[in-house]
Amino acid sequence: MNKVGLMKKNELQNMSNFYNGEKFNGIVIVPMDYEHESGYQCMKYILLDREEIVGVVGGSSDVMHINGIGGLGKEPDYKTRMVKAHDLRIDCLPESQCLRLFSDDYMDLPFNFCGSDFIFEFVDYKVGGSNEKEN
């Protein structure tokens, strides 16, 4: 069991935000105890590289986009609307009961969109593999 899996929800909520641009393959979605102006709960995101915390972002976010807006990825083919498939799995952490999304592919956080929406995009590097792009 990793460190994040053993943390209580309030410990995750109180983590300070940081992100230095590292790639990650997991996201823990931490619901906050307050609402966004939209009426939905705000969320904080714990970014993981395997089991290691590489970033904490959000806190005022009410929406997350996975693989870009509309799921079209970083460089979509707009003519065919074809995108590379990515395996994204979800489990629930035992102590905090927060959801963890994880993949065999790395993701990137290119920018914070509209101030509260977060866009997580897949990049073509495999976890545990070399940093050579796949063909």
Explain this structure.
By secondary structure, this protein is mainly β. The chain has one domain. It contains two helices and nine strands; from the N terminus they run ααβββββββββ. The protein is globular and about 45 Å long.
Main attributes of the structure:
mainly beta; 135 residues; 2 helices; 9-stranded mixed β-sheet; disordered C terminus
What's this model, at a glance?
With about 140 residues, the protein is mainly beta. About 5% of the residues lie in helices and about 45% in strands. The model is unreliable at about 130-135 (pLDDT under 50).
N-C termini distance: 34 Å
Poorly predicted segments: 131-135
Q: Rg from C-alpha positions?
A: 15 Å
Helix percentage range: under 10%
Q: What topology does this entry show?
A:
Blueprint (H helix, E strand, L loop, with lengths): L2 H4 L2 H5 L4 E2 L4 E12 L5 E9 L2 E10 L1 E4 L21 E5 L6 E10 L3 E2 L3 E10 L9
